[in-house]
Each structure stands twice: as structure tokens, then as C-alpha cells.
Amino acid sequence: MNLKIKYLYALTISFLMTSQSGFSQSAKGALPQIKVSKNQHYFVTENEKPFFWLGDTGWLTFGKLDRAGVDKYFKDRKEKGFNVIQVMVLHNINAVNVYGNSALINEDVSKPLITAGNNFNNKQEYDYWDHVDYTLEVARKNGIYLAMVPVWGTNVSKGNKINKEQATAYAKFLADRYKNKTNVIWLNGGDTHGNEFMDIWNAIGNTLKTNNPNQLVTFHPFGRTDSSENYHNASWLDFNMFQSGHRRYDQDSSKTNFKEDNYKFVLRDFELKPIKPSLDGEPSYEGIPHGLHDTLQPKWTASDVRRYGYWSVFSGAAGYTYGHNAVMQMFRKGDKPAYGNKELWTSAINAPGAKQMVYIKKLMEEFPFLEGIPDPSLIVNQGEKYDYIPAIKGEKYALLYTYNGRIIEVKLGKISGDKFEAIWYNPRNGKKTKIGTFDNKGTQNFQPAGKNEDGNDWVLILRSIK
């Protein structure tokens, strides 16, 4: 049977078997569908339970991990509190997974190479897409959602290897295959400029959203850009995602973007109409050189990924995505290193920053964060760059963050109650230290423990007393 006939046969069988295949349909115990909250700034489950997005960038999972690797990775991320993994469906149009299975026929995205069935014990009945199915099922069992990039942006932007018709057909294939998967979220684009090849990105976005209206769709853009800049009003875009990028202040010569100040993306998006959630889908990765390409530069550390997390979330972001240099490329023995990485992914999953991300999630889940409104005016002694202090408040609470242990001078009376309790929260270990009870008026200074230096970060919790 030649490839063309095999493809047509398999495609027919795939559609006919969609309702019968355990991996093509939502399995027993499906995760609740994620949707936008009623105030449109955050996420909730289908039964209105608050959902704080804590993501990891496992971009090359489908291509580089075998089944044992998939099991190990998702088990670890569940234990560390992650609930979303961002992954590329196709890194390249010549994508082949660890089992030697090609994703496409003749590198044509409109022609997925599929076989009938998905018998994981018989390699002749196990293809690239079955491995994607397997990974989705493992993710489901671990309570994790997959935010999937249909095809990485360079496949469109460099050489324009994909036309609109092919893109539409491919998106329809994905929509049909995963239409009943409740743990699927779509990241259109993929590290690409939103103002280029808009016909293709709109075709993919519209096709995914039209066929599966309950699955969330966004756009993952190029560094220091935001989906809201080109697609905020697109009917297929449910929430905004920006990539704050990997460069230091002094490495960024652009005069029009926000540099390291990722909170500025969120504050801007928070005020846009129509209202849509926003989050940082790719800040600086732990363990990657400043600016990416010069391996002699210092590497971003756990304190940096914490800073990006708290800066953005305390500015109204609906969540945060962490990343590590080794994990994002699933670096294995024998792989050609990128961005100066020398660490195996199996070791890097235990990096300090990865372990500390759970504390931002736990903190937000402790409060009714769906009512959170960013309010920088809470800070009397506001600073710039690493001195910046973000603040978010609800009716009976406020959360403020200092990256370098500087005094926080708070303008009071912005939450309810005549008095409030103040508490220090340590982002490195999640421990709390009570400060005291104060009158809720005037201003008040709070001095964290330790030296005034980058990385001595603290969260100040203010909680109303009835």
C-alpha cells in the first residue's frame, strides 16, 4: 500500500473510529473543561471553581520523550503543583518522535501520517499521533492540561512552508481528533511575530475555535510581544499570552517594548476591551544565558523566575508559565546542546525554581483571587526596574511583592475593615511570619528580613480583620 493510499485509508478509519477509541475520546475521569471567569480576567473550571494556571514549558515532549519519559515527567510536574504543560505538536514539518514515527506524509501538514488503531504493544499499529494521544492520557491521569502549539512559527515564517489551505486542513484534523479532550488548550503561533502571515494564524485559530468552541485558544508570540497587539479582537482568541523574553534591560535596545518589566504587559491587557485574561507564557528560563545566545553570559536563576511570576500575577495575570533551559528542550545524553545547556532534563526537573513555583500557586489559591484587581497605588515608595513593587487587592486582602528586600511603604484604607493583619510570606519555601495587627488608615512601613539585595524577595500579605 503506497503512502497516499495508506493516508486516505487511515484517515477514513480514524474518523469512523473517533467515538470508539479511548484515546480519541475523553476517557473516564476526564478533567473539567477550563473556561474564562465571569469577570473575564481569570480562569475557572466548568463548575466555576477557580483555576490558577501554573505552566511549564515542555516544548519538545512529543518528539523527544518515550513513554517512560512521559510518565516520569508528568508525575514529577504533578507533584510540584504544575497543572498546564506547554508543548509543540510539530516542532518541524519533518517531525519524527523517539520511536521513529513521522508525523506527516511528505512534510505536508494537511496529510498527517496515521494508522488504524493505537495498540501501544504493537509498533506497527503505533504512530506519531498515537504517542500524542498517549501523552494526553498520561497528562489527564496526573490532572494536567496540555497547551498545544499546532505547528511552531518558524515553519511558517521561514520559507513559508505552509499555505492557508494546508493550515486549515491540518487545524481541522486536530480539531476532529481532539474535540472531546477536555484537557486540551491551543496555543496558536509559536514564538512568531503576530503581524506576519496573519491569514495562516487566523485560519488555524478560526478552525480550532469554530469546531471546538469549548477549548480555549490563544496565540504564543515572539519575545517581548503580546497576542493582544494583533489578535485581541479576534473571535477565536479567548485569552492573551505574551512572551516577556530572555534579555536583560541593557541587552534590549528597543525603545517601544517593556524590556524585563513583564508586569507592564499585564497592566495594559487588564484594561483592554473586550476583557480577556492575560499571562506570561514565556519569561526568562531558569538556567539559560541572559539574552540566550552568548553562553558566556550569566544564567537566569530561580530568583529571576520568581520575580517574573510575582510581578505578573500581582499585576492581574491569570497565571504564570515557568521554564528551564534543559527541560524546555528535553535534553538527553547525546543531544546537541542549545543555549549552552549541559544538564539532562531528568536532573533539571528538580531545579530550585521548579520546586518554588508551587508557592505562588498555593498563595493565590488561599485567597479569592478571582476578585483580584491590580493596584500599584498601594505603594507609596514605588521604584523602577528591580525596585518595582507590584500590588493586587481583593475586598479583604492585598498582596505586595519586593524582589530585593526593600522597605514597602503601604497606603492603607484600600481593603475593607478598621484593622488588618500583616504577614510575611517567603517565596522560597512558602513559610509565613506574622508581623502584627495595624489600623487600616494612613501609611505604614514594612521592612523584610535580610539584606537589601536582588533575590531577597518577600510577599507582604495584608488581611482584613472583621
From TrEMBL:
<dbReference type="Pfam" id="PF13204">
    <property type="entry name" value="Apiosidase"/>
</dbReference>
<feature type="domain" description="Apiosidase-like catalytic">
    <location>
        <begin position="37"/>
        <end position="370"/>
    </location>
</feature>
<dbReference type="InterPro" id="IPR024749">
    <property type="entry name" value="Collagen-bd_put"/>
</dbReference>
<dbReference type="InterPro" id="IPR025277">
    <property type="entry name" value="Apiosidase-like_cat_dom"/>
</dbReference>
<dbReference type="InterPro" id="IPR017853">
    <property type="entry name" value="GH"/>
</dbReference>
<feature type="domain" description="Putative collagen-binding">
    <location>
        <begin position="373"/>
        <end position="462"/>
    </location>
</feature>
<dbReference type="Pfam" id="PF12904">
    <property type="entry name" value="Collagen_bind_2"/>
</dbReference>
<protein>
    <recommendedName>
        <fullName>Glycoside hydrolase</fullName>
    </recommendedName>
</protein>
